[in-house]
């Protein structure tokens, strides 16, 4: 397929993905904003005022970067998982499979669709956070880079989840039993310095910890972990998941007979 | 001349061990209107699935206008349009978006995709429904939507899997006219259908597939010539209380104004009318009891199964 045709195909998939989640915005954009607003009010404002400082910052300042990252991660993941699985379920994924669109473009289109929703939700949550605290971003480039990489990584994970899924239940199992625990235990609400050495060591096996802390470093300038390693880890996982997704697509896993 | 579709020794064995295709071979020439017939589970949809990449073959080769799908599937796909048997579009998208988006998947610039979308939605009588969600369409409209979507990149080979299933007679006829028009403009068409009248009316060549094997591959005309007998229903003006003397023809009285007569190969209908006329019976109309191709289809499959049992 010629490069201009490939680009057109990619842009078409992305346009359709953005059209999908903006068409159903009460289901896709409003709920995460409401949920995060409640987190800000309850954890940041009501409980946070009694906790005092964490990592040298007010609890509200500390928790905001983690909550923004949590919103980006969950929305990127769920967008691709539900959109691609719906396309499988309604069989309209066949529109793409019978076309000359290469597999990597199909993946890239869906993933960037998930990234778009993650970033839009993250942006809106950031605006709401400004009602509760000031955000004086310390490293803008790094902040944007890590949030983009995290969105890509979890969009890819959502895509793979959708390939394997045989029912709508299958696309809620991973978010419920894997993603949510990893996020809650990934240093969103606390610094791992509060934990004993054993639990600190265990926490460092959690990939979400690296993304939350890298993002927090970008915003506040403090982190529990080495930010360079966070980027290396995220990029390695992106490469691995992209390769795995491509392998599944080229073998037609649960897409072709 | 390079065949529009060339299939050689095509095999498909599913993971559960079921052999859906046992090494079938056939060609479809450019410009042809070709019927692929067979009973349920014969292997028609598997064959189409392999051609359009939704089913992975386990043996053999497929070429579309000389392009082997194993060598350059993307190039082959650009020449191919497929209308599947089951609805496979997003039920929540608008008609216009479904068709126009498909153009994008084929790399068509947006403006061209929009022009073609308008052209085919108008031709298929869906332009007024362009802003309607697909789930709100009737069954016939959904079928036409899939045809419009398959035509957006103007393929040289169009494959339709049961395109008129569940469509009322009037709409079916208008779809036939539409398909004949695009065939006359040069598009090669392959059709699978359960309506054998459809195949007889539209198609020039035919392959019959049963249990994963091709049991017949010839022209519709040649196939019909092999028909040894036809059964006609004759409506007569007079009220009859018993079957008239039909001479050498086999027949029976269906009701007081109609006869069922079997005409063997070599017998003349003129002889039948003469004999009836001599007895004062006037025929006001006549029709085939069943579609001619249907009779052949049934007898071919019966012969095949009988040979299989032997």
Automatic annotation (TrEMBL), chain A:
Location(s) in or outside the cell: Cell inner membrane; Membrane
The keyword ATP-binding belongs to this UniProt entry's keyword annotation: no
Keyword Membrane: yes
Name of a matching Pfam family: ABC2_membrane
GO cellular component: ATP-binding cassette (ABC) transporter complex
Residue span(s) of domain ABC transmembrane type-2: 23-252
Primary location: membrane
GO molecular function: ABC-type transporter activity
Protein family membership: Belongs to the ABC-2 integral membrane protein family.
Name this polypeptide is given: Transport permease protein
From TrEMBL, chain B:
SUPFAM superfamilies: P-loop containing nucleoside triphosphate hydrolases (SSF52540)
Keyword Zinc-finger: no
A Pfam entry, by short name: ABC_tran
Domain ABC transporter: 5-236
Keywords: ATP-binding, Nucleotide-binding, Transport
SMART domains: AAA (SM00382)
GO molecular function: ATP binding; ATP hydrolysis activity
Name of the featured protein: ABC-2 type transport system ATP-binding protein
């Amino acid at each position: 397929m010629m490069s201009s045709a490939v680009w057109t195909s990619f842009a078409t998939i992305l346009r359709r993905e953005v059209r999908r989640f903006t068409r159903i915005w009460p289901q896709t954009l409003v709920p995460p904003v409401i949920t995060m607003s409640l987190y800000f009010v309850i954890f940041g404002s009501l409980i946070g005022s009694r906790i005092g400082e964490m990592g040298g910052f007010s609890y509200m300042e500390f928790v905001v970067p983690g909550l923004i990252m949590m919103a980006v991660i969950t929305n990127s993941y769920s967008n691709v998982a539900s959109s691609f699985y719906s396309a499988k379920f309604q069989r309209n994924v066949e529109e793409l499979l019978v076309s000359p669109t290469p597999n990597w473009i199909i993946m890239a289109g869906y993933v960037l669709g998930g990234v778009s929703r993650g970033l839009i939700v993250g942006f809106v949550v950031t605006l709401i956070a400004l009602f509760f605290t000031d955000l004086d971003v310390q490293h803008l480039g790094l902040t944007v880079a890590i949030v983009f990489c995290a969105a890509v990584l979890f969009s890819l994970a959502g895509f793979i989840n959708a390939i394997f899924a045989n029912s709508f239940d299958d696309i809620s199992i991973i978010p419920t039993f894997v993603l949510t625990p990893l996020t809650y235990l990934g240093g969103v609400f606390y610094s791992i310095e509060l934990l004993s050495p054993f639990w600190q060591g265990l926490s460092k096996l959690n990939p979400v910890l690296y993304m939350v802390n890298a993002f927090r470093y970008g915003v506040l300038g403090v982190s529990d972990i080495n930010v360079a390693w966070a980027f290396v880890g995220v990029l390695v996982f992106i490469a691995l998941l992209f390769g795995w997704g491509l392998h599944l697509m080229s073998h037609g896993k649960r897409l072709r007979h | 001349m390079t065949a529009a579709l060339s299939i050689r020794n095509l095999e498909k064995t599913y993971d559960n061990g079921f052999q859906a295709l046992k090494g079938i071979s056939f060609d479809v020439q450019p410009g042809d209107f070709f019927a692929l017939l067979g009973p349920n589970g014969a292997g028609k949809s598997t064959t189409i699935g392999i051609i359009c990449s939704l089913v992975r073959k386990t043996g053999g080769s497929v070429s579309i206008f000389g392009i082997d799908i194993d060598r350059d599937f993307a190039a082959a796909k650009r020449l191919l349009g497929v209308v599947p048997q089951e609805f496979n579009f997003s039920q929540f998208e608008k008609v216009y978006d479904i068709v126009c988006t498909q153009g994008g998947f084929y790399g068509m610039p947006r403006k061209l995709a929009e022009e073609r979308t308008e052209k085919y939605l108008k031709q298929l009588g869906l332009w007024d429904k362009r802003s309607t969600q697909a789930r709100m369409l009737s069954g016939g409209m959904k079928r036409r939507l899939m045809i419009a979507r398959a035509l957006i990149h103007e393929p040289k080979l169009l494959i339709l899997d049961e395109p008129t299933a569940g469509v009322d007679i009037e709409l079916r006829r208008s779809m036939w006219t539409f398909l004949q028009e695009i065939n006359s403009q040069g598009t090669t068409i392959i059709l699978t259908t359960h309506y054998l009248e459809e195949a007889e009316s539209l198609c020039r060549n035919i392959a019959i597939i049963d249990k994963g094997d091709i049991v017949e591959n010839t022209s519709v005309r040649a196939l019909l010539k092999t028909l040894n007998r036809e059964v006609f229903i004759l409506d007569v003006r007079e009220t009859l209380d018993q079957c008239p003397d039909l001479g050498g023809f086999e027949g029976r009285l269906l009701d007081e104004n109609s006869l069922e007569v079997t005409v063997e190969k070599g017998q003349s209908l003129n002889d039948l009318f003469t004999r009836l006329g001599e007895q004062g019976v006037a025929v006001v109309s006549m029709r085939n009891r069943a579609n001619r191709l249907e009779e052949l289809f049934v007898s071919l499959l019966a012969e095949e199964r009988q040979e299989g049992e032997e």
